[in-house]
Amino acid sequence: MVGRGGRAVRLSSVSATQTSLTHWGAFSATVEAGEITAVAPVAGDDDPSVALGNLPGSVRHISRVTTPAVRRGWLDHGPGPDDSRGADDFVAVTWDELTELLGDELRRVIDTHGNGAIYGGSYGWSSAGRFHHAQSQVHRFLNCLGGYTFSRHSYSLGATGVIMPRVVGTHDDLFKRSTQWDVIVEHTDLMVCFGGVALKNTGVNHGGTTAHPARGALDRFRARGGHLVSFSPLRDDVDGPCDWFAPVPGTDVAIMLALAHVLAAESLADRDFLATYCTGYDRFERYLLGVDDGTPKSPQWAAQICGLDADDLTALARRMAACRTIVTVSWSLQRTRHGEQAPWMGLTLAAMLGQIGLPGGGFGHGYGSMNEPGLAPVRCGLPRLPQGINPVTTFIPVAAVSDMLLSPGEPFDYNGLRLHYPDIRLVYWAGGNPFHHHQNIPRLRRALRRPDTVVVHDPYWTPMAKHADIVVPSTTFAERHDFSGSRNDPVLMAMRRLAEPYAQARDDYDTFAALARRLGVADTFTEGRTSAQWLRHLYEKWSATLDFEVPSFDEFWQVGQVRLPTDEGLTLFADFRADPSAHRLATPSGRIEIFSADIAGFGYRDCVGHPAWFEPAEWLGGPRAERYPLHLLANQPASRLHSQLDGGATSQASKVAGREPVRMHPDDAAERGLAAGDVVRMFNDSGACLAGVVLDDRVRPRVVQLSTGAWFDPADPADPDSMCVHGNPNMLTDDVGTSALAHGCTGAHALVQIEKYTAAPPPVRAHQPPVFAAR
Ligand SMILES: Nc1nc2c(c(=O)[nH]1)N[C@H]1C(S)=C(S)[C@@H](COP(=O)(O)OP(=O)(O)OC[C@H]3O[C@@H](n4cnc5c(=O)[nH]c(N)nc54)[C@H](O)[C@@H]3O)O[C@H]1N2
Ligand SMILES: Nc1nc2c(c(=O)[nH]1)N[C@H]1C(S)=C(S)[C@@H](COP(=O)(O)OP(=O)(O)OC[C@H]3O[C@@H](n4cnc5c(=O)[nH]c(N)nc54)[C@H](O)[C@@H]3O)O[C@H]1N2
Ligand SMILES: [Mo]
């Protein structure tokens, strides 16, 4: 291969063993006959993710999209709303036909309805790799055409992404510049963890990761005498010794208020810290002590809500005030109704302890949610594919996708703004799976009937691909050259191609380049580069910005990695503590806003000016629990990343009777006459799914866990209300935002009922390709 200027681009060809990287870790692969047959973690990774076991067999898996495909109804009748999405046959087309059909449809929508009629948010994790990042590629492509309606925030951090910039002036730094594991090991006496520190989740990092230090750090922390307190309905959200409190799910804010109440009532709150570094504590304290509403948020009050012992909470508050304590809040807590409150209240509790900015004290968000918190940030930016400029200003908070499609023109509130949903004609998805990530699948299926055209790029026949009109077969990361780059991983890794593209799969970049050519924007999109030339270009452009030496691209590619310098020994907000005027927070007051006049000014009923306890609809203490008496935790799966490679060996080994496992307490099973291995029907007003029973007394009674990621598999594809026979928990979650402030995803929780499924369980066909019709 020859690069620009005639230099040799030494992108090695496919060979038997290669290293590469996924979001869940770096590995070396054995490749035979175009397929990954074995993988091993790289040296230096002490705690590799079990999800690596899903990679063998993933290139030639039965669920691969092998040809460009168009839904028969769309091909026969042209674009338009259609109830048969998800139930129709597909027709194989050539790449040239696909480029023509899709290019012309994009042109039609833009010319007739304008660029704002394209929804190109395209949320999803796709693959690691800086260049072939599907979401960046689709955004760049659509920007070349004049833009698209976009989405803000993520399913991961929908509430946090809005509340935290308002009250502590940042969102990113909470993770990127979090207090490091080594500092916690050395200085922290007590880690009080709301939502535990789930090591299953630290396997994963956005953009990939070459090391997993969390488990080792917790071992060293305990060896030094540190103690862990976990509030979680699941004992195994902490691996190893801890004080385990199993509250009623969704009641953490009440617990935090009770701890805060003890601090206030017993003069244990750090008044100097609150006066110097915070604003609005007085307003909050009136609420805390019940001055206006007559309800002190005491341990006795909280005990009625969370089901824990009031004396235990009092004792814990005193213990927290007496030693170096870090309060951590997992991301799951903000993926619920009123999800803004838990991170805001966790921060407030830490502020009352007065240890924010001291080594090993203060606040942490997401230890055990992602590998990133606790890891040292790299001291430089990363190579990045420029996405161009989007002239369209219409957007939605990301988890409002069904609302948008079902209610064009309707007004909605978001973060102090009154916005309107656009009228979307074309939905473009590359690198995500809404049937994994969005709530209330029956509602999503109705929403997807509305647009004229749905386009999906994916390597696999995911349920989203099966609901598309135009399906574009993408390569997987394993079939192309790329390189990694993650802001808290010290290694930039070459991701060399492991196998030739399977069947007719094409890189997303090449698909967009062909479309750009047809639409007359090829030069803008490709800038005259092949993907190999882009890799070199991005690397060289990036290395020119650095104030330290890195090897040339050719050397990098040959050696396979570059080590980047990192900022070591960070404590979150240490600078602010040392000098609050020089390091003002980016909030209106420059300080931590325990009371936010801006938020109060919006007048929202579900998010007021200070952190507060709101009763959610989905909780065991509310009226809905009479009909649906079990609290479902729809958490992240231990066996895979989201829905990715659900057909792989590790994921498949976790299934029970071919279904996703639902973990429940033996008493709840006995009450329903259920035994381990039974197939059950889980249901509520949103929908229903089947699952396979696992009994475990580490689950709090009346709580059940069905992780996300089983590919949606309707018993009757033509019926939008059809149950899922495979165990997708988003059949059960309610499609409602966190509050009018953030409208974040609330998929973590739902109330359900469970009964034995007595009929013969339908076969699971989730990973089978759809039916193809002759032309
Ligand atoms: N109920 C409930 N729902 C949830 C959550 C929850 O806790 N509970 N969690 C939420 C969270 S935090 C998240 S982040 C989301 C995750 O939701 P998603 O990010 O949408 O889930 P993934 O399964 O990672 O989807 C990525 C898709 O990209 C495809 N892909 C991989 N490589 C490529 C490529 O190179 N090109 C293209 N075009 N496609 C590629 C994969 O095959 C896969 O279909 O789910 C959310 N949904
Ligand atoms: N293996 C694996 N790791 C992953 C992912 C994956 O798909 N697979 N996804 C990654 C992504 S994109 C994200 S955003 C993060 C998400 O990180 P999180 O949102 O933190 O992950 P979850 O597993 O949903 O939740 C963590 C734990 O919180 C507990 N929990 C749930 N509700 C409550 C509650 O009301 N109160 C208390 N105290 N505890 C509660 C649950 O027991 C759960 O196991 O995970 C990342 N890590
Ligand atoms: Mo996420």
Automatic annotation (TrEMBL):
Record Pfam families: Molybdopterin, Molybdopterin_N, Molydop_binding
- Name the Gene Ontology molecular function terms of this record: electron transfer activity; molybdenum ion binding; molybdopterin cofactor binding; oxidoreductase activity
The prosthetic group or cofactor this protein requires is: Mo-bis(molybdopterin guanine dinucleotide)
Annotated keywords: Metal-binding, Molybdenum, Oxidoreductase
Q: Molybdopterin oxidoreductase N-terminal domain spans which residues?
A: 20-60
Q: Which GO terms describe its cellular component?
A: outer membrane-bounded periplasmic space
The regions listed as transmembrane in this protein's record are: none
Domain named Molybdopterin dinucleotide-binding: which ranges?
Answer: 630-739
Q: Which residues form the Molybdopterin oxidoreductase domain?
A: 64-517
GO biological process entries: anaerobic respiration
Q: Which domain of life is it from?
A: Bacteria
What family, per the record? Belongs to the prokaryotic molybdopterin-containing oxidoreductase family.
What this protein is called in its record is: Molybdopterin guanine dinucleotide-containing S/N-oxide reductase
